[in-house]
Amino acid sequence: MQMVTAAEMAAIDTATAEQAGVPFAELMEHAGAAVARFAQRQFRRARRVVVLCGTGNNGGDGFVAARHLARTGLSVDVIVLGDPAKAQGAAAEAYKALQTSRALPFAVGSVEQVRGLRTKLEDADLLIDAVLGTGFKPPLRELPAALRDLLREVRTPVLSVDLPSGWDADLREQSSPDAFRSDAVITFTAPKPAHLFGHLTTGHFGPVVVAPIGTPESLVRSEERLTWTGASTKLLETPRPMDSNKGMYGHVLVVGGAAGKPGAPSMSSLAALRTGAGLVTAAVARSIQQTVALTTPELMTAALDEAEGGALALSNVSPERLETLLKKISVLAVGPGLGTEGETPAMVQRLVAETTLPLVLDADGLNAFKGKAELLDGSKRTLVLTPHPGEMATLLGVSTKQVQADRLNLARKFATEHQLHLVLKGWRTLVAHPDGRVAVNTTGNPGMAKGGSGDILTGIVAAMLAQFPHEVAGAVEAAVYLHGLAADLAVQRRDERTLLATDTIAHLSDALRYRVQDEDGATWICGVRRRGGRWSAEGRAELD
Ligand SMILES: NC(=O)C1=CN([C@@H]2O[C@H](COP(=O)(O)OP(=O)(O)OC[C@H]3O[C@@H](n4cnc5c(N)ncnc54)[C@H](O)[C@@H]3O)[C@@H](O)[C@H]2O)[C@H](O)CC1
Ligand SMILES: [K+]
After folding, report:
1. Which atom of ligand 1 is nearest to 86's Cα?
2. Ligand 1 test: best mutation among 8, 67, 136, most atoms within 8 Å of CB?
3. Could you tell me which residues are beta bridge partners of residue 51?
4. Which residues form the YjeF N-terminal domain (predicted)?
């Protein structure tokens, strides 16, 4: 699923008419019908619906949706912001079709009239925001701004058509000062930048769904080749053969755990086992080997030599030691609990240089390359780095602030220059690939801001590589998606403050079985569907 800009979307609409023979009015009809279906499914108990429409095509979608909803017997009011005579083309047609339905529109033309809508909006069960879509150009004018302010004072749930009105579709920021409040968003054909980078809804888990409206996938083209991690979870739908054996799913070796740091390698290892790796071994300092072994009976362990002070010793990478350690290993995960003391960085550099095994480098595994980023070369092996912004800054020799200011470009540049897969963590984790493609991740929540989270991601990534060695890009994307999704599922049963990194492991089963596409064919790029296909939000079982 590619992300497209607002201008690309308009070109795709034209191509859909010219090359696929689907006229614009038909796209609008499908869009409006999809909005109506989504509204009914997600806001099941809504009886009184108010559809707020602009006079552009976003409003046109609203007119169509209102017509469909009225036909099902709901009480539907249509409020047009501005002069309906301004509507043109398909939107004008949709407005005309409304005249024969039970949803009669009325227009508001002044700020006072907008303010007079308060009771109507408060009394409704659902508001559908079809005021502005991709045609919005900031800043927001007076009339929609008054409506935006009023919506902030009213508690009725808001379903946004295409985008929360006033949100620039091409904006790549987490928030937008102009925008309307939103509880759920339904967009069409492909996500725009705002859908992937923005936090569009009030709750953490308000859905953002992409509904197909008749444009063939082959016409969805984008210059930038930016995608979404959830699309790669298709990999997980591959059924395992009945006569499976553990050798088919790889053997992950987690290298980490200096003296006194048994937690991190234990968590990575358990996460790898729970994600489906056939075998997992944790190679850790001799003094903590027993502790690590006792965390999980299915886990195998190997002892690493310790130098004075407890740091891991260079002797661990002697030819003989490597031969024993790496026998039958299919993926290496280096970093959890490793430390940066003494000989450890040199040991890591040697380990990386002397094998060509697929490798995931995290935490102190990355810090071992401080000032030596040129040694990180994925041109002849599978190499995945999972830095948080601080670690990325260390690698690049810049400040964390500089990394945060230009995440997308930095990630893409580093991945292509070093021919590796880079997982740059944070709000909307980015997965950049050697060929310049980047996938944006939309799962995860603030509960993950706690020690251990990264260790678990490392284990999930390693296990995915072990199982899908020939689909590396997809395996890494799916891993990042799963990790956040498992945490999203976990946090719905707990509070985000009490969430422990290991709680995400307990929700990996649900995350692995989750399907991003709903029964209607819409793809859920944000939000988690539960119970009867609807979503649940934190603190509230359901929004309807
Ligand atoms: N393939 C698809 O995704 C389809 C989407 N559809 C819908 O069409 C809209 C885009 O329609 P468009 O007419 O281009 O723009 P809008 O309706 O979003 O807005 C135009 C409207 O807004 C006024 N306006 C612009 N800026 C401001 C501002 N700052 N303040 C106030 N008003 C403003 C402008 O004057 C126009 O009147 C897309 O979002 C989808 O909802 C199609 O229906 C089917 C294909
Ligand atoms: K809208």
Report:
1. 37
2. 136
3. 78, 128
4. 9-221
Q: Which residue has the tokens 């970093």?
A: 335
| Tokens (6 digits) for 433 | 């690939």
Establish whether 425 is an annotated binding residue: yes
169: region left, alpha or beta (phi > 0 left; psi from -120 to 50 alpha): alpha
Comparing C-alpha atoms, which of 351, 354, 362 is closest to residue 461? 362
* Residue 134 labelled as part of a binding site: yes
Which runs of consecutive H residues, i.e. helices, occur in 255-360? 263-274, 289-295, 319-326, 344-353
* Tokens read off for 528: 């988690």
Residue 503 known to bind ligand: no
* Residue 539 pLDDT: 32
305 is in an annotated binding site: no
Q: What is the largest CA-CA distance in the chain?
A: 85
Ligand 1 atom at minimal distance to the Cα of residue 60? 43
CA of 16 to the centre of ligand 1 (A): 18
Determine the straight-line distance between the first and last CA of the chain, rounded to whole angstroms.
Answer: 29
Q: What is the ipTM of this complex?
A: 0.99
Q: Are strands 126-130 and 105-108 parallel, antiparallel or unpaired?
A: unpaired
In the chain, what are the domains? 6-223 (3.40.50.10260), 251-513 (3.40.1190.20)
Which ligand does the CA of 158 lie closest to?
A: 2
Numbers of helices and strands, H then E, in the chain: 20, 20
Residue nearest to ligand 1 atom 39, measured at CA: 133
Q: Are 439 and 228 in contact (CB under 8 A)?
A: yes
User: Which tens digits make up the pLDDT trace of 441-482?
Assistant: 999 999 999 999 999 999 999 999 999 999 999 999 999 999
Beta pairing, strands 421-424 & 383-385: parallel
Helix axis angle, 24-42 relative to 57-71, nearest 10°?
Answer: 50
pLDDT, the chain, mean: 95
CB distance 23 to ligand 1 below 6 Å: no
Token code pair at residue 262:
């048994």
CA distance linking residue 33 with residue 70, whole number of Å: 12
Report how far residue 283's alpha carbon sits from residue 181's, in angstroms, rounded to the nearest whole number. 50
Site of tokens 């850790």: 284
Among protein residues, the one with the nearest Cα to ligand 1's atom 41 is: 58
Ligand closest to 56 (CA) is 1
Cα 131 to middle of ligand 1, angstroms: 8
Single-letter amino acid, residue 95: Y
Cα angle 165-167-168, degrees, rounded to a multiple of 5? 125
Whether the full predicted model's pTM is greater than 0.80, yes or no, is yes
CA 230 to ligand 2 center in whole angstroms? 24
**Tens digit of pLDDT for each residue in 318-346?**
999 999 999 999 999 999 999 999 999 99
- Relative to the CA of 9, which ligand 1 atom is closest? 1
Count of Cβ atoms closer than 10 Å to residue 335 Cβ: 28
